[in-house]
Amino acid sequence: MPAITSNAPEPSRTDPALIRNFCIIAHIDHGKSTLADRMLQLTGIVDQRQMRAQYLDRMDIERERGITIKSQAVRMPWQAHGAAHVLNMIDTPGHVDFTYEVSRSLAACEGCVLLVDAAQGIEAQTLANLYLAMENDLTIIPVLNKIDLPAAQPDKFAAELAHLIGCEPEDVLRVSAKTGEGVEALLDEVVRQVPAPVGDPDAPARAMIFDSVYDAYRGVVTYVKVVDGSLGRRERIQMMSSGATHELLEIGVTSPEMTAADGLAVGEVGYLITGVKDVRQSKVGDTITRQRGGATEALGGYKDPRPMVFSGLYPIDGSDYPNLRDALEKLQLNDAALVYEPETSAALGFGFRVGFLGLLHLEVIRERLEREFNLDLIATAPNVVYQVTMEDGSEHTVTNPSEYPGGKIAEVSEPVVRATLIAPSEYIGAIMELCQTRRGTMKGMDYLSEDRVELRYTLPLAEIVFDFFDALKSKTRGYASLDYEPIGEQAAALVKVDILLHGDKVDAFSAIVHKDKAYAYGVRMAAKLRELIPRQQFEVPIQAAIGSRVIARETVRAMRKDVLSKCYGGDISRKRKLLEKQKEGKKRMKMVGRVEVPQEAFIVALSSDSESAEGKNKK
């Protein structure tokens, strides 16, 4: 049973004019979660004894890495201008891989707090989130955080922020989320500047699902914003996209723990529990209405996210396949950007091809699967989606190197992104050099101030999903920031490199790479496998090939038994006869022998590929 928080106002009686829905957006590590902590303390909804840093970050991974992965909504009371207001605040992630979480949070708000570090200034993801907020026509409150730091330059960055948004430098609020300085004034400004939600209280009920999570004991918990009408406990509701109907077992608000209420009215943000265990019945972006006398027109949903990176996930123990399928279903509810489909590999058995928004997204999902569901997984090397056009005009979509078609290929297209890089001006040369080696094309450059520059490039997505960010950080001593968005496709000279063991292709090690980098990939993979594959009774050739042309080769030497050990003295022909007999046996064995690749070899060869590159860049 959830704890009932006494100081939360009664949800069903709140006047929409006294409600303010807003979120905090910023670049990663600019202090969003710390600012949210101070707000929770100031509004008094979290006891001093219960308070802990990153209070709204519920996952172990979030706390360990110091990043926000899931948006968290919380309801806070605030006395301002002689009236008791209700503030619904959403703390959002800052990393580029979780932009979809931010876009959904913005759709549930009327205003946002744009937070900038007073020591670092505007970063690439700050710009990306600002443009998202502008697209949603939100009221933007510019705020400089960390003004207590010795390295802070509030006047300089206030001018930069004012120039970007189109306001005066004096309008930029200055706070220290760590000490609490200026946070009260910020909450007053939220009440003053952010408009109240607009909706018709007498219209048929319409509520938009902006998030949902799976609870092992209570089933699906759905987070909604009520746009029109109201919803009450024990009512029957209908999902407008699927037509499924459920009874509302519990309705309430998060303040910051779940707090049951009689209902939710216009403009309010809260949660619903129907007892449904099937995760597919609560789709993010769907509209909820009453079963009887409900609305006929759904609210505009969200743009479905397009996965940028694909990787195969396979259980090390084949019997864990059903558990992996259930785990992915449950995670998909917590993370609407996750897409997957079953896949079979000759080398790895049954698994899933999973689509991610980026490499950090892949890392986090894999770690959550292993921790929360006790699974041991192998992840194949990440790759992007290619479009292959054959000479006969047929087209193929390739998400996995094993799907790459044979025959005469007319053209291969790869996804391209528009990348925005912001860094101190002394690193322009290093950034340009890095982007050129990654097949980038420069599109423009602007000075945000005399010592900070914004560079715009188009880059192939395949070139930036592995170690681009680490290389960028190492070349700019950690000062550069990166944001990217897909802009389409371009034709490129791409080839598929196959790895052959004893003449047989091993699909798990195949890769689609640019023609200029194919040789390096083949040599690296062959050398790595020579170390990992145990010696057999016969010689094993490891080859890297493009089509029928071998571009690299390593050999695992055969184990040899000393057949002459029992032959003392005697004629040389006797020894030769024994050696010839052994040679014939080896020949026969080579013809029928199969090379069994140990599981450890797959894990090391596939996982360390990108990790070793990152390690080099960090050094």
Largest sheet descriptor: 8 strands, antiparallel
Rg result: 29 Å
> Structural class of the helices, strands and pairings?
alpha+beta
CATH topology of the largest domain: Rossmann fold
Count up the helices: 14
Report on this structure.
By secondary structure, this protein is of the alpha+beta class. It has five domains: 11-193, Rossmann fold (3-Layer(aba) Sandwich), CATH 3.40.50; 206-290, Translation factors (Elongation Factor Tu (Ef-tu), domain 3), CATH 2.40.30.10; 309-380, Elongation Factor G (Translational Gtpase), domain 3 (Alpha-Beta Plaits, 2-Layer Sandwich), CATH 3.30.70; 387-491, Alpha-Beta Plaits, CATH 3.30.70.240; 495-618, 2-Layer Sandwich (Alpha-Beta Plaits). The chain is built from 14 helices and 31 strands. Strands 11-10-16-7-8-15-12-13 form an eight-stranded antiparallel β-sheet. Strands 2-3-1-4-5-6 form a six-stranded mixed β-sheet, sandwiched between helices. It is globular, with a radius of gyration of 29 Å. Residues 1-12 and 608-619 have low confidence and may be disordered.
What's this model, at a glance?
By secondary structure, the protein is α+β, with helices and mostly antiparallel strands. The protein contains 14 helices and 31 strands.
Describe the protein's topology:
Elements: E1 19-26, H1 32-42, H2 60-65, E2 72-80, E3 83-91, H3 99-107, E4 111-117, H4 124-135, E5 139-145, H5 154-165, E6 173-174, H6 183-193, E7 206-215, E8 219-228, E9 231-232, E10 236-239, E11 245-247, E12 250-254, E13 258-260, E14 263-264, E15 269-273, E16 287-290, E17 309-315, H7 321-334, E18 339-345, E19 349-356, H8 359-372, E20 377-379, E21 386-390, E22 395-398, E23 409-424, H9 428-437, E24 441-449, E25 452-460, H10 461-464, H11 468-475, E26 481-491, E27 494-501, E28 504-505, E29 511-514, H12 518-532, E30 540-546, E31 549-556, H13 572-592, H14 599-618
Parallel strand pairs: 1-3, 1-4, 4-5, 5-6
Antiparallel strand pairs: 2-3, 7-8, 7-16, 8-15, 9-14, 10-11, 10-16, 12-13, 12-15, 17-19, 17-20, 18-19, 21-22, 21-23, 23-25, 23-26, 24-25, 27-28, 27-29, 27-30, 30-31
